[in-house]
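Retro notes (design track)

What went well: tokenization of the new backbones is finally stable.
What didn't: we kept losing track of which sequence belonged to which structure.
Fix going forward: every design gets posted as structure first, then sequence, in one message. First example under the new rule, 123 residues:
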């Protein structure tokens, strides 16, 4: 996977008969990102219901060539009081982009720390 952060959503079809939102949101980060390989409980992001998934993109059924060797984080809309009215497809997309922006910020902040460290080291 190139140094690109990707996102996608997936419709929830595996909970028939239960109340839930439209689906789940996922973000794929490249190797080298500071959260790569981390369990979802270790990632400091704010997303609906908290992160509920982490794993290698290669093992993910929806994996594409572009996602190869990436690490996936995801959330779902199958929590208490989630439903299609509160969590339609557009809201799942919006929340997925919110998650993606937080993971981009973590990467940028980490790169800034590295740059600052190197500049102090060379003084």
């Amino acid at each position: 996977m190139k140094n690109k952060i990707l996102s996608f959503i997936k419709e929830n079809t595996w909970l028939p008969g239960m109340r839930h939102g439209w689906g789940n949101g996922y973000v794929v980060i490249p190797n080298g990102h500071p959260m790569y390989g981390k369990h979802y409980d270790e990632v400091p992001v704010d997303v609906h219901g908290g992160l509920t998934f982490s794993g290698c993109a290669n093992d993910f059924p929806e994996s594409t060539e572009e996602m190869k060797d990436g690490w996936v984080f995801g959330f779902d809309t199958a929590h208490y009081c989630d439903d299609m009215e509160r969590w339609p497809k557009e809201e799942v997309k919006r929340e997925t982009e919110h998650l993606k922006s937080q993971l981009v910020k973590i990467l940028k902040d980490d790169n800034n720390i590295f740059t600052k460290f190197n500049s102090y080291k060379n003084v």
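Added context from the reviewer: Confidence is low (pLDDT under 50) at residues 114-123.
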